[in-house]
Amino acid sequence: MSFVCTVDVEDWAQSTLDTNLPITERAGLQVEHLLDLLAEENVRATCFILGKFAEKFPSCVKRIAAEGHEVASHGYGHVELFRLLPSEFREDVQRSKGQLEALTGLAVKGYRAPCLSLIKESLWALEVLAEEGFVYDSSINPGVMARFGISDWPPQPVRVKLPSGLSLVELPLATLQLPGYRFPVAGGGYHRLLPWMVIRFAVAKRLAGGEAFVAYCHPYEFDCEEFSHLTFPLPLKTRLHQGLGRKGFEAKFKKMLQEFKPDLALHVAEQAQWPLYLPAI
Ligand SMILES: [Zn+2]
Questions:
Q1: Domain extent for 175
Q2: How far is residue 260 from each of residues 39, 68, 185, 266, measured CA to CA in Å?
Q3: Could you list which residues have their CB under 5 Å from ion ligand 1?
């Protein structure tokens, strides 16, 4: 089975504080830094790129494609799916897909929702994605402690059969099955705060069991200096939630890439006849 390294390419403040904020210059530098790191480690990642980021940094998007990473969509504006009407979601996705395809000349086949906001109430989004030609989605967090998620969603990739008759593959974010609950271990704060040996155990356990491990990160998580350069006050709770563990994250991330060579999400989505799954939509 496969280890997949995914990156949500976006701006920290715009994506986590206020979607009306502009994309900062710092976001471009953070992405360049992560691309340098991936090149040093000689690995390819799947990059879910936000439309607003692509608009400001087209050269970054071209570099991502030129260096062999998978170009996938993170939507245009980073508004959570359950705040959008299906028609607004379709517009957001079409805009982002069209932009990325125009910039790279490559077909965009994968999607990730902002803040992993594909929850039971927004499962209709899968129908829109299938209609718009997406081969796979990777937005569902099946962990029980997740901020957003679907706790009874299959923790392995499945081919989701939709009411229209269309289908697409869902690559859920990795969880670790513990007695009584599924612990989210795919990335973000979990990877920043958990010791490397725990992350290593979680990845190895899933791979040894013949399961996929879809990990995720954000370019800003590698930037320890970001909060010293803010031009606005940041509440302590947000500072801790978003900033803790950034120092030391890069070292853990490198170890992960060295030990578990990543495959692209699209390859994993297309590599097998994933079991059919019919959710109630
Ligand atoms: Zn995001």
A1: 3-275
A2: 16, 18, 15, 17
A3: 8, 10, 15, 114
